[in-house]
Design a protein that fits this description.
mainly alpha; elongated; Arc Repressor Mutant, subunit A; Four Helix Bundle (Hemerythrin (Met), subunit A); 13 helices; 3 domains; 64% helix
Length: 297
């Protein structure tokens, strides 16, 4: 998947990058002073000077991801968002440089942007998949025998899976995903064919006829079951409906307390009622299992 910047966009990006690279780096003491002014006094001027000095860091990190085919200007913008997030969370009291802290936020922001835009299909949804997406490309690049469209050998996939703490299946799926670009369902099947790719996608859902038949059978089963339940005594009906037909069936103890009987007596009545239902349906339509009635008994 590739993007083409206009001449004006490329020139604007170059001017921005040249300007960013001309800003002087901050000395440790001055950086700490700016970080404290922003952290404790919300000094906007200090924030501006602190972040402006490290836009060159954003540019350097964004350049590492240029092989993904996304606009460098967009990646720099995303990296700047990460830089601002780092500034908002940086604690000057800790003994490390702001640039060290900001690097993680910048890289993470750029990587999230790549995952969102590299493909119209969501590529990485978990931390493990995200790590796999970026590390697998580097592994593939180091394999001399690798050619686009082929699969990694089992030994290499096992090594990658172990290193990144994912399954071999995850490695294989991601490798296949990276080896193929997005395709439109409206793409023609061949030069001499009139059909589109979507014409050859199987529809595994039920046909309209099957749906109607299933709905009809369901109504019939419900009717048989209701007819059988209506032949029970009121107490038996209560037990069957609350124990077997309710979404969250009550316990024997709860139902015993409600009816003023022991839970063992509830169990006995329930067993007898299920037998009556089974006999009623068998008398009406035959074996309950053959007509899809295996529950509630």
């Amino acid at each position: 998947m590739g993007y083409i910047d206009t001449f004006e966009t490329l020139e604007a990006n170059r001017r921005f990058i040249r300007k960013a690279m001309k800003v002087d780096l901050l000395e440790a003491k001055h950086e700490l002073k700016l970080a404290r002014r922003w952290r404790y006094k919300k000094d906007q001027a200090a924030l501006h000077e602190l972040t402006t000095a490290y836009i060159r860091l954003v540019v350097a990190i964004a350049a590492r991801f240029k092989s993904y085919g996304l606009p460098i200007g967009d990646m720099v913008q995303e990296g700047c968002i990460g830089l601002m997030q780092a500034a908002a969370r940086f604690e000057p009291a800790r003994a490390f440089r702001f640039s060290t802290y900001a690097t993680w936020w910048i890289r993470s922001s750029i990587q999230d942007y790549i995952l969102r835009n590299w493909s119209i299909v969501r590529t990485g949804t978990t931390a493990a998949q995200k790590s796999l997406f970026f590390n697998l490309r580097r592994v593939r690049a180091r394999i001399a025998k690798f050619e686009s469209g082929t699969t990694l050998d089992p030994e290499t996939m096992e090594k990658v899976a172990k290193a990144l703490k994912v399954t071999v299946k995850d490695v294989d799926l991601m490798n296949r995903r990276l080896s193929a670009g997005d395709k439109s369902l409206n793409d023609p099947v061949g030069e001499m064919e009139d059909g589109e790719m979507q014409d050859f996608i199987a529809d595994d859902s039920d046909s309209p006829e099957e749906i109607v038949i299933a709905q009809s059978e369901t109504k019939a089963r419900n009717r048989w079951l209701e007819d059988a339940i209506r032949q029970l005594t009121p107490r038996e009906q209560t037990i069957i409906r609350e124990r077997r037909l309710a979404e969250d069936g009550v316990t024997l103890s709860e139902l015993g307390d409600k009816l003023g009987i022991s839970k063992e007596r509830v169990r006995q009545i329930e067993f007898e009622a299920l037998g009556k239902i089974r006999n009623s349906i068998t008398h009406a339509v035959g074996d309950p299992a053959e007509v899809g009635l295996t529950r509630p008994y």
